[in-house]
Write a sequence for this structure.
C-alpha cells in the first residue's frame, strides 16, 4: 500500500496510522518534497513534479499497489492513476483541485519565513477552523510539528491551483476507486465543494462499505 499525504503532513505524521494497520504487506508513505529529510521542492516545481515522483516510487515497487491518498495527495494519485494500468485500487480521501484556497495564496506568500503565521492562515483561511482552535494550537505540543510543515504551503497551493486535472479521463480508470468525504464536510466549503468535482468525474467510484469488503478480501490469507 502506498500513502500520499496532502499539505501540512509528512511520513512521520502518518506513522500512527500505519502502525495501526494490521496488513501482511508493506505500507509506504511518501515523504513529499519540501518535508525533511526529503529534498526541496526545486526550481519549476508543479503538480507534474509530484506526479513524476509518485510514478518513480510506483515503478520501483513493481505495480500491484493499493493507494490511499489524502487531499492534495488524492489529486496527485488520481492524476498518476490515469497514466497507469498496474494499480489494484485508489482511495481518495477528500481530494481537492483548483480553485482551492486561492484567497490564501497572497497572505501565505507575504508570511514567508513566519511559520506560525502560515499555520494560522492555512487553518483559519483554508480549512475554516475557528480562532479558538487556532489559539489552542499555539499552546499545543503539536505546534513544533506543524511549523516546518508550513514551509512549502504557498508553493503547494500555487501548484494545485495552476494544474488542470484530467477529469475527462477519470471515467476510463480501470481500477477500483473509492472516494471518501468526512460527514462534517458534506456540502461545506472548501473540502465538500471540491469533492463534488471528483464525484462528477468518477461516477464509477465505490462506496466506503465496498472498500471495507475489498480490503478484507485483500488481506485474507
Amino acid at each position: 500500500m502506498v500513502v500520499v499525504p496532502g499539505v501540512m503532513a509528512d511520513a512521520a505524521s502518518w506513522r500512527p496510522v500505519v502502525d495501526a494497520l494490521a496488513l501482511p504487506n508493506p505500507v509506504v508513505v511518501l515523504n513529499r518534497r519540501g518535508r525533511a529529510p526529503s529534498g526541496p521542492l526545486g526550481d519549476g516545481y508543479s503538480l507534474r513534479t509530484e506526479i513524476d515522483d509518485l510514478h518513480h516510487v510506483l515503478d520501483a515497487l513493481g505495480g500491484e499497489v493499493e493507494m490511499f491518498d489524502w487531499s492534495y495527495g488524492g489529486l496527485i494519485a488520481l492524476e498518476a492513476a490515469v497514466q497507469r494500468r498496474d494499480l489494484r485500487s485508489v482511495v481518495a480521501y477528500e481530494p481537492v483541485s483548483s480553485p482551492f484556497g486561492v484567497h490564501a495564496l497572497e497572505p501565505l506568500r507575504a508570511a514567508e519565513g513566519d511559520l506560525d503565521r502560515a499555520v494560522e492562515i492555512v487553518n483559519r483561511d483554508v480549512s475554516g477552523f475557528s480562532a479558538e482552535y487556532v489559539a489552542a494550537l499555539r499552546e499545543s505540543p503539536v505546534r513544533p510539528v506543524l511549523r516546518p510543515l508550513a514551509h512549502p504551503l504557498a508553493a503547494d497551493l500555487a501548484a494545485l491551483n495552476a494544474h488542470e486535472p484530467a477529469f475527462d479521463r477519470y471515467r476510463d480508470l480501470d481500477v477500483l476507486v473509492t472516494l471518501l468525504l468526512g460527514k462534517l464536510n458534506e456540502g461545506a466549503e472548501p473540502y465538500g465543494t471540491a469533492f463534488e468535482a471528483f464525484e462528477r468525474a468518477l461516477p464509477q467510484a465505490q462506496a466506503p462499505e465496498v472498500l471495507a469488503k475489498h480490503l478484507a478480501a485483500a488481506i485474507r490469507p
